[in-house]
Amino acid sequence: PTPSRADEKHLKRDISRLGFAAMSLNGIIGAGIFGLPAVAAARAGDFGPWMFVICGLLTLTIVLSFARASSLVRETGGVIVYASNAFGPFIGFQTGWLSFLSRVTSMAANTNLMVTYLAWFWAPLDTHPWRGVALTLIIGGLSWLNVVGVRNSIGVMSVFTVMKLLPLSVLMLFGLGTVDVATLFGADWPEMSEFGGTILVLLYAFVGFAGSVVNAGEGKNPRRDLPRALVSTTVVIAVFYFLIQWVSSATLPDLAESRTALADVAAVLFGALGAALLTLGAVFSIGGNLMASILSAPRMTWALALDGSMPRWFGAVHERHRTPHHSIWFYGVLSIALGLTGTFVWLAVMSTLVRLLAYMVSIAALPRLERQTEEPELAFKLPGGLLIPGVAMVLCLWLMLQAPLSAWLTLAAFAAAGTVIYFVMRRPTA
């Protein structure tokens, strides 16, 4: 039978507020914080910690807008549902299609980075064919875990959450003894010509929050739990990043030149054992990020299939496990294919650009969602009405203008491919 939105009842509603918080946290804290401290130091010097605060505040305006939208909608799909309800199926499809491609590329690149960190423990992993074998096993294993049940995936991700935060927290707490308050508050503002580009790069450490809204259809009470999970995790992570950057700057004078910033900081504070623990923390951090990605992204192609914009094969739900298994395996196989050829550098700006576009569409959809939806009990309310979403919209547009022409051309090519897919699927059949 042809899949439809009525099939959403077949999904298990197993995700609690803690589960959504774990998804949001793991979607945000991934590979970025292990490499971006060096970028912040190189571009902003001692002002680097404040750059993460600024990024956190900018992100919070977008997160608050998503919190409001998520309290009005409980269907699977996230930005797809917001855009489709407000602007019609074509805009909804394009928003979901581009967001999905952004997540595939992110999954591929971050898995490559995970293998690089694992090679610290066993050097052959950085050589052919072991790198490809490890990448395939990691993505294949996470795909299988997700197919056999959301609850299993949330459980594994919760373990990753603890294992990633523990070494970072130890680094932060012990490193606070090396910081200099006078240096922090006396730091010079970075060059304004570089400010926008620096924010665009550092924002990559924050952009994964929207993944959790995709799984609203599998939540126990998503309209209540999602908004609170989104806001609380964003605030906590912004403070966390600020402190890590502050400690890193104070501990490592040549932070800007470091390729493995936090591992080098740990080596200074704790010696070789500390570097090993931080490297292991990086592996768990990226692992949690990958699990969050594979929990949310396949639900986008599944939701598009329910809307008739993707082949109905993507809309299948496993009879026993009640998960969208075809979409999950497709995501895993495509990520493996790209992971064998993808690059991490291209991802950061490209992924952020695509997500900012999806954020703008979702924010623009908010007024229509409010008019179309009956206000649910305990709905998340924004102070000032649409003022915060308006600020978020302007900030997103400003940040997108910082992206290079090559990223825009790639985005245009993806959108053109999506247009072909959409109209082929929508053409009338004889």
Number of strands: 0
User: Mean pLDDT across all residues, rounded?
Assistant: 81
Shape: globular
Main sheet characteristics: none
List low-pLDDT spans: none
Structural class: mainly alpha
What is the CA-CA span between the terminal residues?
18 Å
Strand content: under 5%
| SS field, number of helical segments | 17
Q: Would you write up a description of this structure?
A:
By secondary structure, this protein is mostly helical. It has helices at 17-28, 32-44, 48-70, 79-87, 89-118, 130-147, 150-175, 181-185, 192-202, 222-251, 261-270, 272-296, 298-306, 325-339, 344-372, 387-400, 405-426.
Index terms:
430 residues, mainly alpha, 17 helices, 70% helix, 0% strand, globular
Task: Give a topology summary.
Blueprint: H1 17-28, H2 32-44, H3 48-70, H4 79-87, H5 89-118, H6 130-147, H7 150-175, H8 181-185, H9 192-202, H10 222-251, H11 261-270, H12 272-296, H13 298-306, H14 325-339, H15 344-372, H16 387-400, H17 405-426
Helix pairs in contact: 1-7, 1-10, 1-12, 2-3, 2-9, 2-10, 3-10, 3-15, 3-16, 4-5, 4-15, 5-6, 5-12, 5-13, 5-14, 5-15, 5-17, 6-12, 6-14, 7-10, 7-12, 11-12, 13-14, 15-16, 15-17
Describe what is shown at a glance:
The chain has helices spanning 17-28, 32-44, 48-70, 79-87, 89-118, 130-147, 150-175, 181-185, 192-202, 222-251, 261-270, 272-296, 298-306, 325-339, 344-372, 387-400, 405-426. The protein is built from 17 helices and no strands. The protein is mainly α.
